[in-house]
Amino acid sequence: MTDISIRPATGEDIERIAEIQAACWRSAYRGRPEEYGAEIYTIYIQEAYQRNGLGKRLIHNMVSKFLALHYSSVIIWTFRNNPNRPFYDNLGGKVVRKSTYEIDGVEYDVVGYGWEDARRLLSEGE
């Protein structure tokens, strides 16, 4: 077996981790139709930094990396009662999934905003 070092990930590992995750996903699900290939589970931005374009910049950065990894669609999850849901609407997202998320034994309703063509996220909400 190859000599492999196991250590905590660092910021420098992010792109390689994404590449490995994408390759494993494609291998595991080869032949199955892609529903939403890339998922963002949540975005948190401190209130003092909201409404100044930072959220769009973060999403544009992530989507650019997803596209480089050959993901063509994206789903972003958020809490159903999130007062900032219009942010996702303004980016052209449509609610395509509903689910629940458990935190400390309490279930919360979540919704998934989907973009079948992730490229649209790079131009929407400009």
Written account of the structure:
This protein is an alpha+beta fold and 126 residues long. It has a domain of 87 residues: 3-Layer(aba) Sandwich (Aminopeptidase). The protein is 28% helix and 23% strand. The protein has a 4-stranded mixed beta sheet with strand order 1-2-4-3, with no helix packed on it. The model has no long low-confidence stretch (mean pLDDT 85).
Features:
126 residues; Aminopeptidase; single chain; alpha+beta; 28% helix
Note the topology.
Blueprint (H helix, E strand, L loop, with lengths): L13 H15 L9 E3 L13 H15 L5 E6 L6 H5 L3 E10 L2 E10 L11
Parallel strand pairs: 1-2
Antiparallel strand pairs: 2-4, 3-4
Strand content: 15-25%
Based on helices, strands and strand pairing, what is the structural class? alpha+beta
How much helicity do the residues have? Answer: 25-40%
Text of the CATH class of the domain at 36-122: Alpha Beta
CATH topology of the domain at 36-122: Aminopeptidase
Separation of the first and last Cα atoms: 50 Å
Q: What's the alpha carbon Rg, rounded to whole Å? A: 16 Å
CATH architecture identity of the domain at 36-122: 3-Layer(aba) Sandwich
User: Within the largest sheet, what's the order of strands?
Assistant: 1-2-4-3
Number of contiguous helices? 3
> Main β-sheet, in a few words?
4 strands, mixed
Please provide the ordered H/E string of secondary-structure elements. Answer: HEHEHEE
Uncertain ranges:
none
Q: Given the C-alpha coordinates, what overall shape results?
A: globular
DSSP strand count: 4
Going by CATH, what is the homologous superfamily of the domain at 36-122? Gcn5-related N-acetyltransferase (GNAT)
Average pLDDT number: 85
